[in-house]
Amino acid sequence: MQHALFRFFETAAHRPQLLRVLAIVSTLAVLLFLVDNFFVFWTDWPGTSQFLTHLGILTPDNKFKALEGFVVTAGWIQFTLTAAVFVLAIVWVFRTPDRDLESDARLYDSMASYFVRLAFWSVFLVGFADAFISFLRIEGFLSAFVGEHLTTQLGRSVFRGIWIHYPLICIAAVIALVNRSLGFIWLSLMIVAAEFVIVLSRFVFSYEQAFQGDLVRFWYAGLFLFASAYTLMHDGHVRVDVFYTNFTARGKAASNALGSLILGLPLCWTILILGTNSRGSIIISPMLSFEISQSGFGMYTKYFMAVYLAVFAVTMAFQFISFFLSNMSKFTEQQAEADQPAESNLPAGAKA
């Protein structure tokens, strides 16, 4: 069984173009799935699946409604752009035959890193800005800065989301592009500092507001979910190890590649599909309504935290694809010692 599995992976590894195509198609499928959902739920375009059903390629279900008018044109635009992206990506793979699997693995690492940096800077900027606005609004200082009309508008989650949060996310996207460092250590420090401020204000000054606890939860949830892909990138997740330590180098590579395919990627797709399959789903519903917590004077970022699940799924999917390619590249090495246990894994007496 073991040798048959090794032969399978060795055969696949010696077809790098096929693996590169599968990797880039998987990556684009994740991104285009989210873009497709954006058009479906925010612009009322039909979506690729609905359009394919309209063409008769897919079987209609009970919820299908016939498309007409501009919606058909919009469907053609979506379908054409989606097909063009996939074709161009496949063409790129075959026009760069000299790229190896490890190079593509680093590319997907970089993509995952960028999205994680974007998420970090977004929660950093949005957290500070929203907490500051909430503080001014609670204490009655906001109208002195922005006037009564804008104060009323900032009390609406839709207005604050569109005119405060979204621009800050755009700024975060630029910062993440320029600044290549990851700030999880600083985010951890800010969580501790925010919790310390709560303790200090509560027990020393007898002052506590809902936005203070909201800020801690906002940052802590981001730290937990955004750092997952970064931790996987550095192989820092806790591994329930029963057999792995005693595997050969190729055995470990096969285990990692197989785990990425049958456990990692399906988990990411499960989160994305269940979280975005309808207007009432766990990710789409809070985003459409700009959902906030029950305390009206807390932070207006509850809807934002639903997006954390999508960010987690996307970054982990990219990282699993990178992990798969990186481990598959090890099967192209034909050294005789590849099947020997690594020296660090041998008992101390066996090394002598």
How would you describe what is shown here?
By secondary structure, the chain is mostly helical. It folds into 2 domains: 6-99, no CATH class; 100-342, no CATH class. Helix content is 72%, strand content 0%. The chain contains 13 helices and no strands. It has helices at 2-13, 16-42, 48-54, 70-95, 101-139, 142-154, 157-178, 184-203, 210-233, 249-276, 284-289, 302-328, 348-351. α2 (16-42) packs antiparallel against α12, α5 packs antiparallel against α9 and α9 (210-233) runs parallel beside α12.
Describe the largest sheet.
none
The topology string of helices and strands comes to HHHHHHHHHHHHH
Taken as a percent bin, the fraction of beta residues is under 5%
Please identify the structural class as seen in this structure: mainly alpha
Please work out how many helical segments DSSP would assign.
13
Average pLDDT level? 87
Rg is 24 Å
Helix content: over 70%
- Label the overall shape: globular
Number of domains: 2
Distance between the termini: 31 Å
Number of strands: 0
Stretches with pLDDT under 50, minimum 5 residues: 334-339, 342-352
Can I get a quick summary?
The chain has 13 helices and no strands. It has 352 residues and is mainly alpha-helical. The protein folds into two domains: 6-99, no CATH class; 100-342, no CATH class.
